Amino acid sequence: MTVTRGLEGVVALNSRISSIVDGVLTYRGINIDDLAEKASFEEVAFLLWNGRLPKREELDVLTKRLASDASLPQGIVEQLKAYPKNVHPMAALRTAVSALGLYDEQAEDNSEKANYDKAISLTAKMPTIVAALFRIRDGKEPVEPQDGKGFSYNFVYMLHGQEPDPVAVKAIDKALILHADHELNASTFASRVTTATLSDLYSAITTAIGTLKGPLHGGANERVMEMLEEEVGSVDKVEDVITRKLDNKEKIMGFGHRVYKDGDPRAKHLREMSRQMAELTGEPKWFEMSVQIDDLVQSKKGLKPNVDFYSASTYHYLGIPRNLFTPIFAISRVTGWTAHVLEQFSDNRLIRPRAEYVGPTNVTYVPIDQR
Ligand SMILES: CC(=O)SCCNC(=O)CCNC(=O)[C@H](O)C(C)(C)COP(=O)(O)OP(=O)(O)OC[C@H]1O[C@@H](n2cnc3c(N)ncnc32)[C@H](O)[C@@H]1OP(=O)(O)O
Ligand SMILES: O=C([O-])CC(=O)C(=O)O
Q: Which CDD domains match (predicted)?
């Protein structure tokens, strides 16, 4: 047997959802650059789930459903209040999404219609959970979403409990579009492995959230901000800190990618968003530090920033605490995960690779009192 470490380059399945070819990312065949500039997050969600862009009435229906399905069962709100305050929000989100399945009468129904409904319902509720966690930790009551408002508007509204700044709503919407799907990344693969046993959608998304949390995957955005705030701190320290980290063979969070070796097409959008935010807030430091790190890591290591690098400074400029960065990724990626769950159910086969056994053989069992 030949082992391909980390399954690099292994093609595990056919998919019609997103593609990465020659460094170009598309959702259902549409270039991410076009979607980032022209679409809304709701349109992208519809596109991922249905394989085509919505007509106006279809978009209106979905937008309304995403707002009207956003409220949480009271049992979940009580649970969120009871969680220890110091746990990571990704751990709390993972647990809350798992618990949500207990309140859904359709949880065990794996028909296409039921799973489509669950995809919408879960996508609607994830921002409510994240915003509620944020407010509860701050000693505040969760805020209910507003009917008739868009997905990103409601998320920012529920975080701060007041009319959001349109610039912040637009920025979040664009960031959500850029994070929505990404072929067979680790968390999506994990969700498909769970689905392929014919388990249920809540189990698959719980698996995916746990997988996204890791710092080699979605958890990197939080680590980028930690580096900017706690290790670098100011533009004049960039060279020393980054050189030392590279000399110590430490990984620089937000750089490198398993598939993109010549740059992540999403990073340029986030870099531009961070630049604009720096200008708007009159606080250039975080953007300038990021640009210097980017230049240095490229020149010393030949590594380019991935989606997580400039999203960190962008979210920071938006006043979002860094332990919510990965939950925001999850709020978006749940659209991709659920699209993959639907696709897996539509043409399922158990996913079960092999392992090459390299441990000892012919070992004799020794009774316990003779060991
Ligand atoms: C949304 C996302 O998930 S995007 C990815 C988010 N993750 C991060 O930003 C974490 C930092 N990056 C990394 O750890 C890696 O680049 C990964 C996990 C993204 C990809 O990993 P792999 O494809 O397995 O690459 P691998 O880790 O083998 O790296 C290849 C070489 O580049 C180096 N390298 C890769 N990324 C980095 C980095 N960020 N900083 C420093 N060196 C790096 C490795 O040390 C290795 O060097 P070596 O050959 O001298 O040992
Ligand atoms: O595809 C990957 O390996 C990681 C990634 O960029 C993503 O999930 O967006």
A: BSuCS-II_like
